[in-house]
Amino acid sequence: MTDGRAFDVAIVGGGMITNDLLLPSIYHLQRLGLVKAISICALNTPPFEALLENPQLAEAFPGQGFTPCPALSESPEKDFPELYKEVIAAMPPHSAVVVAMPDQLHYPVLMEALNHGQHVLCVKPLVLKYTQALEVEELAREKGLFVGVEYHKRFDRRALIARRHYELGHFGEFVMGEAKLIEPYLYRHSNFQNWFTCENTDPFVYIGCHYVDLTYFITGLRPTGVSVHGVKGAFPNGNVAYMWSQGRVLFENDAVLSVINGLGYPDEGAGPNEQGLVIYCEGSGKTALFEHNDQFRGVSHSYTDAIGSGGTVFNYINPDFFQLGPWEGPGYKPMGYGYDSVAANLETIGRIRESTAGLSAGDALARRREIIAEVDEKRLIATPANSSINELVTEAARMSILNDGDFVKIVYDGEPHIEPKG
Q1: Are 204 and 315 members of one domain?
Q2: Is the pLDDT of residue 178 over 90?
Q3: Which of 104, 174, 341, 387 is the most buried (most CB within 10 A)?
Q4: Which domain holds residue 78?
Q5: Measuring CA to CA, how many Å separate 259 from each of 140, 213, 226, 278, 351?
Q6: Are residues 300 and 377 in the same domain?
Q7: For residues 36 and 232, what is the distance between their CA atoms, to the nearest angstrom?
Q8: pTM to 2 decimals?
């Protein structure tokens, strides 16, 4: 791997997704020579304790580490809300900024990164408004910068298989579906209670978006309307949130997808959550379906002692999303479509850098735009250009849930937008 291909990475956000998926994936890419220096920027220093004291990370990636921003010498009581700007500004151009902040904070970090000439990988959803998604897309195109959205279910082999068969007409046409993703109750005791509040987000927007995007990814059908009802509850600190949601998404062929989400899977239950998707289709004189049970994939473990975040002895194991296992190198390597998704996004940045090494500024910009357009067209990696239907759905969902589940239309004629039904 050439030096021109490798780049620095700054993760903005030190929470759960950084601990569970992003940092271990990026550590492994560092071992493979794609990533150079790693820094993590958080609001304050306490998140670094969890990362640095995580025995799983220490076992899997011996000798590797990151630069904490702010420094560990700072008081844990002191906040640095603008520090990410300094971190991004100090990076060499065309490095990678990984946005792992609460949903409502994505947009300012994205724009800061793009305005400083950095490629971006952002956790889903990209932003909460369609106009913001367009703004990100246009600025990235102008500067020839890659922006990927971490919709990792697109890299699940079962989703790739389903998409191929759907494209070949083996299912017929999607008409009715149901999805669910219930995260564990223990989320209510995490940092979620400081930001996952009614005015900011809800379970449909935060996790239901995975299955709306996946349905669009497999079928190519655009959503045309959304209705979401939320059930409120209080976090331990007293903040009120939508703890549960039920969404109804209509598509351009009149198909319907029901989406059930929540922060309430029992901590004593087997496995970390409950999730899955079933899609029914109409063919010529017959029907078809595909069903994905995403929390149980035929693997069960019963340990001698309770382990894992839920602290359970018996567990349904998902070997396909993200696991650590032996490999030919030191420690353990990440496996699964979660890692594949992060790797595909960052490897695209590496390919862009390698393809433009030694070119003039004008030729390099043209080549970057060409590669990014190819990624947009392929529709495997989620980008603002090929996944902005999600921002329309998100915007419609927020309008609906804040208005007691009123149906909200998505209109594509002219400038795509949302509007209340009637």
Answers
A1: yes
A2: yes
A3: 341
A4: 7-153+330-387
A5: 32, 12, 11, 11, 37
A6: no
A7: 44
A8: 0.94
pLDDT in tens, 402-421: 999 999 999 999 999 999 98
Whether residue 1 has pLDDT greater than 60 = no
Based on the number of CB atoms within 10 Å of its own CB, is 62 exposed (0-12), middle (13-18) or buried (19 or more)?
exposed
pLDDT-derived band at 268, boundaries 50, 70, 90: confident
Backbone angles phi, psi at 90, to 5 degrees: -85, -10
CATH code for the domain of 110: 3.40.50.720
Average pLDDT, rounded, for the chain: 95
Same domain, 191 and 82: no
Give per-residue pLDDT as tens, 131-149: 999 999 999 999 999 999 9
Q: Of 206, 213, 153, 207, whose CA–CA distance to 180 is shortest?
A: 207
Token duo for residue 43: 């609001």
Mean pLDDT, range 16-27, rounded to an integer: 97
Residue range 97-113: mean pLDDT, rounded: 97
Do residues 241 and 164 share a domain? yes
Same domain, 184 and 291: yes
As a whole-number percent, the residues of the chain with pLDDT over 90 amount to 91
Report the pLDDT value the prediction gives residue 297, as an integer from 0 to 100. 84
Spatial CA neighbour of 410 closest among 222, 157, 129: 222
- pLDDT category at 309 given cuts 50, 70, 90 is low
Tell me which residue has tokens 């906040």. Answer: 79
Number of domains in the chain: 2
Strand partners, 316: 300
Domain CATH for 306: 3.30.360.10
